[in-house]
């Protein structure tokens, strides 16, 4: 096996409701961001560390830190909600922040707070939800298709997700969420992720999109939903202003699972 690095770079592995990420402290810019093949190899579950994505924590003159997120195919992604919660835990573990932060990501600034095991991440306001026959499309930092499915447990998420991602949204694509109501303000969600090109155990911007789409559809429902994913439970809170969605919070756990060195 050819060595990946000639110098020691620490890496950490975090997961948030089963959406897992390689996390690297890149405040000294040691990690090269342009090596798509290397990032894809590190994320490979057989030939690398294995993860749904890789996230760099970088310095920023105005914010506590900058989040740079890559999907497991090595390409830079749009916003990642679970990754956003994980990088807040990482910044706390590195001693950069305590229980509150403001950081910058690809879709703009985010605030977050930590209370016990839970990390609340503020998402960007959402101004628009497209309603199509039987589905919704909206951008919560990443593009999301949302569709209700009755038999969600046995649904072929990977096959149908891939079909919708390419047939409806072309080369640029979209993430694809399938949702089943599970009571008054609870939903079960399964997501096909663009850039991973597979079902993941959970997708933060995806469950946020589902919560807003379901609220938009039902109109008179509470502004807090519990979302069950394959990897655990998330909460989405928000305020409908009558014109757009504001004060959107994605709430859930994020854990460090191991650390190591990128060296062979
Ligand atoms: N897992 C991520 C979604 C990443 C979006 C990414 N797949 C893209 O479309 O670039 C989340 O928790 O929000």
Automatic annotation (TrEMBL):
List the SUPFAM superfamilies: Diaminopimelate epimerase-like
Q: So where does substrate get bound?
A: 19, 71, 81-82, 175, 193-194, 204-205
Q: Which Gene3D superfamilies match?
A: Diaminopimelate Epimerase, Chain A, domain 1
* One GO CC term, this protein: cytosol
Q: Does the keyword Thylakoid apply?
A: no
Against InterPro entries, the record matches this protein to: DAP_epimerase_AS (IPR018510), DAP_epimerase_DapF (IPR001653)
**GO terms for molecular function, please?**
diaminopimelate epimerase activity
> Quick one: which pathway?
Amino-acid biosynthesis; L-lysine biosynthesis via DAP pathway; DL-2,6-diaminopimelate from LL-2,6-diaminopimelate: step 1/1
Task: Enumerate the catalysed reactions.
Answer: (2S,6S)-2,6-diaminopimelate = meso-2,6-diaminopimelate
Q: Tell me yes or no: is Isomerase among this UniProt entry's keywords.
A: yes
Q: Name one GO biological process term.
A: lysine biosynthetic process via diaminopimelate
Q: What class of enzyme is it?
A: isomerase
Subcellular localization is given as: Cytoplasm
Supply the alphabetized keyword list.
Amino-acid biosynthesis, Cytoplasm, Isomerase, Lysine biosynthesis
Q: Where is this site: Could be important to modulate the pK values of the two catalytic cysteine residues?
A: 144, 193
Q: How does it assemble?
A: Homodimer.
Q: Which HAMAP family match?
A: DAP_epimerase
Q: What PANTHER family does its record include?
A: DIAMINOPIMELATE EPIMERASE, DIAMINOPIMELATE EPIMERASE, CHLOROPLASTIC
Family, similarity comment: Belongs to the diaminopimelate epimerase family.
Q: What is this protein called?
A: Diaminopimelate epimerase
Which species does this protein come from? Zeaxanthinibacter enoshimensis
For this protein's source organism, the top of the classification is: Bacteria, Pseudomonadati, Bacteroidota, Flavobacteriia, Flavobacteriales
């Amino acid at each position: 096996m050819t060595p990946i690095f000639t110098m020691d770079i620490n890496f950490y592995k975090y997961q948030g409701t089963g959406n897992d990420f390689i996390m690297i402290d890149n405040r000294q810019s040691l990690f090269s961001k342009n090596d798509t093949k290397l990032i894809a190899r590190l994320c490979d579950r057989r030939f690398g560390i294995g993860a749904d994505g890789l996230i760099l924590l970088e310095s920023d003159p105005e914010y506590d830190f900058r989040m740079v997120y890559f999907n497991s195919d090595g390409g830079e992604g749009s916003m990642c909600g679970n990754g956003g919660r994980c990088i807040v835990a990482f910044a706390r573990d590195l001693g950069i922040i305590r229980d509150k932060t403001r950081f910058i990501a690809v879709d703009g600034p985010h605030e977050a707070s930590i209370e016990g095991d839970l990390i609340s991440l503020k998402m960007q306001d959402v101004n628009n939800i497209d309603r199509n026959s039987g589905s919704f499309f909206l951008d919560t930092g990443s593009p999301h298709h949302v569709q209700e499915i009755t038999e969600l447990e046995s649904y072929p998420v990977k096959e149908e997700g891939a079909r919708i991602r390419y047939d409806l949204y072309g080369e640029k694509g979209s993430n694809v969420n399938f949702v089943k109501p599970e009571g008054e303000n609870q939903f079960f969600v399964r997501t096909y992720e663009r850039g991973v090109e597979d079902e993941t155990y959970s997708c933060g911007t995806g469950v946020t999109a589902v919560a807003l789409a379901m609220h938009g559809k039902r109109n008179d429902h509470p502004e807090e939903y519990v979302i069950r994913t394959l990897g655990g439970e998330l909460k989405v809170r928000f305020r409908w202003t009558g014109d757009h969605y504001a004060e959107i919070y994605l709430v859930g756990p994020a854990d460090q699972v191991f650390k190591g060195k990128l060296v062979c």
